[in-house]
Amino acid sequence: MEGDQAAAAPVLLNCFVSPFGNRARIALRRKGVAFEEKAENLAAKSPLLLSSNPVHGKVPVLIVGGRPVCESLVILEFIDDAFSAAGEPLLPADPYARARARFWASYIDTKMPECAARVWRSPKGAAAVEEGKKDMVAALKTLEAELGAKPYFAGDALGYVDVALVPFAPWFLTYERLGGFSVAAECPALAAWAARCVRENDCVAKSLPEPEHVFQFVCGMRKMFGLE
């Protein structure tokens, strides 16, 4: 497969603020894989996106050799497998450690998007905002407890769980402004971890949007939804 992939760079269908799409950005850059990125307007999805992901019609999609791979965690594992000779693996070799990493990545996907949506897609002052904030803080505290005193979730190096979670960090400012709380105050170790991911890993620093740009994007979406 790697010989076929060398013929044409993978194509990533993404939206610059998408935590899910930016997972793929980080993984590809961590592996040193050159790729082409095609920006998607999620209000007017391209025919390529809809044909590549006809079930969900969502970013990200990674197209390799003309074949699409969908769903961000699936894409991370595909990148790890397909480009196994390039760089350090995202998932650990030990079966138990791999299972544990998958568990926490699944936990992130179960908790973060739903809590976040209640915070930023609800009218100001709505009960859903407060409920979403409380549930989000609880989830972040649970993740902080799992991180413990380690630099990264798997130990000393950026791994699968870090890549799954850190793309949400640029959204923290938006959650804080709309939800009325501080991630750094509630979860200082997790805030320090997010800063470390960016500071120590070029693949992360080059893949994440500016928090203020995310906030302005969300403000535009809220206006479109009639929430402002």
Give a description of the structure.
- This protein is globular.
- Helix 2 (19-31) runs parallel beside helix 4 (72-82) and helix 5 (95-120) packs antiparallel against helix 6 (127-147).
- 58% of the residues lie in helices and 7% in strands.
- The protein has a four-stranded mixed β-sheet with strand order 2-1-3-4, covered by helices on one side.
- It has two domains: 2-82, Glutaredoxin, CATH 3.40.30; 95-224, Up-down Bundle (Glutathione S-transferase Yfyf (Class Pi), Chain A, domain 2), CATH 1.20.1050.
- Residues 1-6 have low confidence and may be disordered.
- The protein has helices spanning 2-7, 19-31, 47-52, 72-82, 95-120, 127-147, 160-165, 172-179, 183-186, 188-200, 202-205, 211-224; strands at 11-14, 36-39, 61-64, 67-70.
- It is α+β, with helices and mostly antiparallel strands and 228 residues long.
- The longest helix is centred in the middle third of the chain and has 26 residues, at 95-120.
Q: How do the helices and strands line up, and which of them pair or pack?
A:
Elements: H1 2-7, E1 11-14, H2 19-31, E2 36-39, H3 47-52, E3 61-64, E4 67-70, H4 72-82, H5 95-120, H6 127-147, H7 160-165, H8 172-179, H9 183-186, H10 188-200, H11 202-205, H12 211-224
Parallel strand pairs: 1-2
Antiparallel strand pairs: 1-3, 3-4
Q: Descriptors for this entry?
A:
disordered N terminus, 2 domains, Glutaredoxin, alpha+beta, Glutathione S-transferase Yfyf (Class Pi), Chain A, domain 2, globular, 228 residues, four-stranded mixed β-sheet, 58% helix, 12 helices
